[in-house]
């Protein structure tokens, strides 16, 4: 199916033709018109908004935005409908993020090559790390730098080196980093991250000393990551309003772990090896000293033996159990998923565990009939776990003989309900050169911040 431009890149068409085509639509009762528009995904709304002034005013109104987000909440996927974002390694001029919109069940293409071009040399090897709101974070392997793209501002800039110095794409661990729009829904962000096995060089760096930055982004973001430095957990935070890094040594937590899933505070996994991990918690605002936990899983049931994949994110953990089976088509051994469990941080179960601050508690188990719906053979698997507004989203990415497969599960804490979100094939799953994946529950909020934007500033998004 061909791509259709939704905003930003407009093909010339007579205004009279557009008005004529929209005439019957604009004569519909407002209740029916609302019902039609509420069924569209955000990129489709952006395109409709650019066609005619009456529709632009309607879609840009606070009342319609409120109705749209309420409609997303009633779908059961959370107060803000989520996007699954995937980056493919393509020539720089074709660089794009594929976005799957859960409620509409469709893939969209989000071009980023023109935005990245001023910030990177041709042929740079990019890896997609994280997303928040309209901001996308990339790691440049050749220059060993971080680059943030803001879709709404159509701007990109390179971040100064972290206190651990330049880092290639293989040094970044997905479980230990987070990009934060600050506050949610705004054009401000921060980046959080936890490092390991390296010596910090300095407390902070300023990009003015590291080369000329590209277009200044008109907001603050935070990027945080956590890692072990000489076996000690550290939290590193970049703020775009000051263009500097800050590092803090985490101390062992005294007392129960703060609640997960809310807007306050951030959990990062500083290190993990199977079931063993070090979790770092950063309080709201990042002013207090970070604390860390060494949570333990409950003793496993001998009847649930087999391979286990541990996926960490936002203070939760998912354990994916698999069993080896014979594949009759290839006469080889493959794996299939047999169970998925969700854990959260709770009170220590024993006095010995109290020194670690918290233990993992079982929250929910994916029903067996749900697993039967997406069970497929695989050779290797990895995962992504994120939570927002009380909805936990787990994405499992697997590969079997060169073919990729995506499984998207969501758990609503209030409803205590699991859902499997079927993800259709995105066109080239066979031989796909995947270069990063993320989940964003705030991407839909980039529209419309105020009045309808002009075509020159509107983000370019296409449907597939």
Structure description:
A hairpin with a 2-residue loop joins strand 5 and strand 6 (135-140). The protein is globular and about 65 Å long. A 6-stranded antiparallel β-sheet has the order 1-27-4-3-2-26. Strands 9, 10, 11, 12 and 13 form a 5-stranded mixed β-sheet that branches. It has a 4-stranded antiparallel β-sheet with strand order 5-6-7-8, with no helix packed on it. Mean pLDDT is 75; it is low at 1-16, 76-80, 196-219, 351-356 and 447-460. It has helices at 15-26, 30-37, 42-49, 53-60, 62-77, 113-116, 351-354, 368-374, and strands at 4-5, 83-88, 96-101, 106-111, 126-132, 135-140, 145-150, 155-158, 177-181, 189-194, 221-229, 232-239, 244-249, 251-252, 266-273, 276-282, 291-293, 307-313, 316-327, 332-346, 359-365, 380-388, 391-400, 403-412, 417-421, 434-440, 462-463. It contains 8 helices and 27 strands. By secondary structure, it is mainly beta. Helix content is 14%, strand content 39%.
Q: Helical proportion?
A: 10-25%
Rounded average pLDDT: 75
Beta-sheet strand percentage? Answer: 35-45%
- Compute the separation of the termini in Å: 6 Å
Radius of gyration: 23 Å
What is the topology, as strand order, of the major beta sheet? 1-27-4-3-2-26
Oligomer: single chain
Q: What composes the largest sheet? A: 6 strands, antiparallel
| Contiguous helical run count | 8
Shape: globular
Write down how many β-strands occur, each being a DSSP E stretch of 2 or more residues: 27
Name the poorly predicted regions: 1-16, 76-80, 196-219, 351-356, 447-460
Q: Which structural class do you get from the secondary structure elements? A: mainly beta
């Amino acid at each position: 199916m061909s791509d259709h431009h939704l905003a930003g890149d407009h093909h010339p068409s007579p205004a009279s033709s557009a008005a004529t085509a929209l005439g019957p639509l604009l004569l519909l009762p407002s209740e029916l018109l609302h019902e039609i528009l509420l069924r569209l995904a955000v990129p489709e709304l952006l395109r409709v908004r650019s066609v005619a002034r009456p529709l632009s005013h309607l879609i840009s109104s606070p009342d319609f935005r409120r109705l749209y987000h309420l409609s997303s909440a009633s779908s059961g996927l959370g107060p803000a409908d989520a996007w699954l974002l995937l980056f493919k390694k393509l020539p720089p001029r074709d660089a794009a993020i594929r976005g799957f919109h859960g409620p509409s069940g469709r893939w969209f293409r989000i071009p980023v090559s023109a935005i990245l071009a001023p910030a990177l040399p041709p042929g740079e090897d990019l890896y997609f790390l994280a997303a928040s709101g309209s901001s996308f974070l990339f790691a440049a392997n050749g220059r060993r730098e971080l680059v943030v793209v803001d879709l709404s501002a159509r701007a990109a800039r390179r971040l100064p080196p972290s206190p651990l110095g330049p880092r290639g794409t293989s040094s970044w661990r997905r479980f230990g980093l987070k990009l934060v729009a600050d506050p949610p829904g705004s054009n401000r962000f921060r980046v959080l991250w936890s490092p390991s096995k390296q010596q910090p060089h300095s407390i902070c760096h300023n990009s003015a000393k590291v080369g000329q930055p590209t277009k200044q982004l008109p907001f603050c973001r935070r990027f945080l990551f956590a890692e072990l430095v000489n076996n000690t957990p550290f939290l590193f935070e970049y703020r775009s309003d000051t263009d500097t890094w800050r590092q803090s040594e985490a101390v062992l937590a005294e007392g129960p772990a703060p609640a997960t899933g809310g807007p306050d505070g951030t959990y990062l996994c500083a290190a993990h090896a199977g079931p063993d991990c070090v979790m770092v918690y950063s309080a709201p605002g990042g002013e207090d000293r970070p604390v860390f936990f060494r949570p333990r899983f409950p003793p496993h049931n001998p009847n649930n033996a087999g391979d286990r994949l541990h996926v960490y994110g936002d203070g939760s953990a998912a354990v994916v159990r698999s069993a080896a089976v014979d594949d009759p088509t290839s006469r080889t051994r493959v794996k299939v998923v047999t169970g998925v469990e969700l854990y959260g941080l709770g009170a220590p179960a024993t006095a010995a565990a109290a020194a670690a601050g918290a233990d993992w508690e079982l929250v929910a188990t994916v029903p067996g009939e749900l697993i039967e719906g997406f069970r497929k053979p695989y050779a290797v698997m990895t995962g992504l776990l994120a939570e927002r507004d009380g909805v936990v989203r787990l994405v499992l990415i697997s590969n079997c003989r060169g073919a990729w497969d995506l499984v998207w599960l969501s758990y609503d804490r209030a409803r205590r309900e699991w859902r499997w979100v079927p993800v259709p094939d995105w066109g080239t799953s066979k031989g796909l050169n995947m270069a990063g994946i993320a989940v964003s529950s705030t991407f839909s909020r980039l529209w419309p911040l105020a009045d309808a934007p002009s075509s020159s500033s509107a983000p370019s998004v296409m449907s597939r």
